[in-house]
Design a protein that fits this description.
10 strands, globular, 4-stranded mixed β-sheet, homodimer, alpha+beta
Chain lengths: 180, 180
């Protein structure tokens, strides 16, 4: 097991939210292989908790899943933007709240088998109401769920989005043992 | 917030592990929008625990991430295959162990913003050694980690793959309270 050597790379599809490139790589065994890679900007995902210990979730229809999902707020980091700024912008755009306090909780790759997407995970607190000003958020319903009910929503399958499960359970682990 | 209506759909890229289609949809507001959707077969992901309470993880170089990641075993479900059979096949192919017992833990969408991929999450136990017979697993290093150390590997960022974090923390939640 070792690093692959990239022999060549070309863009094969240019979409709106991502592009696809095809790499020809040489594996450590010497064999060459083709890899389809989805290139996407890094993203942020946010566990947002209000003063009453409710987590802010978003319910929206997802074309790719073909159904409505309950998810934590998330979105792409704009070019030149730092992750903390992206968190504050996305929170205002999608939830109508501005977080006075944003702290890093961790991060993870969304689908490392084929996607470059890395999600920076943040905790957002000290939420103050802020005007909704985004264009494409008319389809998002904001849902407040007490922190004490999050575990049950995950284990029952009502929350069935990988980033939301990973982010929320990491948050629950952290608040159980803040020093770790 | 409501279901979108699909107006048209066409395949714009056909790759090895996925294909890309572009949908034209009508949102509940009446506006139309374009959606790039990555189509991929459903997958399984496995929390595999041996008799000594070690979790079986895989370390491998991921082209899309550009680095080695530590992940739970996972893979696509073949056409006509049921998820349990895929778990047993992938376990033999990737770890060299055959699980005598396979139970469902849950499931989640990998990246519902653009990908159809749904992962069925299973717990695999009663592992018996089995001959490795897959072609493409020479690059995978099997790593055994005591269950008691999993939480630390996640919170420290050493495990930074969404499906692995979601799957392992769901498993830890389940064993804490088996009835839920």
């Amino acid at each position: 097991m070792a690093k692959e050597k990239k022999l060549s790379s070309k863009v094969v599809y240019e979409g709106r939210a991502f592009r696809i490139r095809m790499d020809t790589v040489q594996k450590s065994s010497g064999q060459s292989a083709l890899r389809d890679v989805l290139e996407r900007s890094d993203c942020i995902a946010v566990v947002a908790v209000d003063a009453e210990d409710n987590v802010l979730l978003e319910r929206q229809f997802r074309t790719a899943a073909g159904k409505e999902l309950l998810e934590i707020p998330a979105g792409g980091i704009d070019p030149g933007e730092d992750p903390e700024t992206a968190v504050k912008r996305e929170m205002r755009e999608e939830t109508g709240y501005f977080p006075q306090k944003v702290t890093r909780l961790g991060g993870f790759y969304a689908s490392p088998g084929y996607s470059t997407e890395y999600l920076y995970l943040f905790l957002a607190t000290d939420l103050t109401p802020s005007q909704l000003f985004a264009e494409d958020t008319d389809e998002i319903e904001l849902v407040r769920v007490p922190v004490s009910k999050i575990r049950r929503l995950i284990l029952s399958g009502e929350i069935d989005d990988a980033k939301s499960i990973a982010g929320l359970l990491m948050y629950l682990e952290k608040i159980k043992a803040p020093g770790s």
